[in-house]
Design a protein that fits this description.
The structure is a single chain. The protein has one domain. A hairpin with a 4-residue loop joins strand 7 and strand 8. 34% of the residues lie in helices and 36% in strands. The strands form 3 sheets. The chain has a 5-stranded antiparallel β-sheet with strand order 8-7-6-12-11, covered by helices on one side. Strands 1-3-4-5 form a 4-stranded antiparallel β-sheet, covered by helices on one side. By secondary structure, it is an alpha+beta fold. The protein has 3 helices and 12 strands; from the N terminus they run ββααββββββββαββ.
Amino acid sequence: MEHASTEYRPELLSRRGELVAWGLALLVAVTWLGLLLSGRRASLALPLLAAILFFSAASISMGNWMDRHTFLVVEAGGVRFENGLRRIRLEWQEIGEVRVFPATWGNKVQVFGERLYFDFHTLGEVKYKGEVRGKTGFAKGEEIMRQIILNSGLEIVDHLGEGYYYARR
């Protein structure tokens, strides 16, 4: 019997933080360049700060790019995960472990095959002063996790601190 596949995509955060990070990096770099061109001495902290801000902005951009290219497909025979850098396909019988850990926003779910693994986050809400400012992770992350555990024939084996560990008995 053929089952339809279901594709899931993560919630996307606003790109405002990315724009702010790039803006601050450019502001510090332009300030440093202005001091150099005017013949004034700039503290070593200024180029160091510019480098840190550029690295931070690039990291945020990379994370946003990966989020926008991430999807997870639950199919009759297994699960597929892609994030722009990695492509993983695991048949149900290949999945040997699932580990679930609480994270800042939602839970982190790690899915292990014999040689390959991937992880994803369940839905998390970014709050500021009690108000939801954004959502991150997979909105149906708990459902995805349950499908993977049930279809793989895994059972809860142990607690890992605050997390859980599922495997074949």
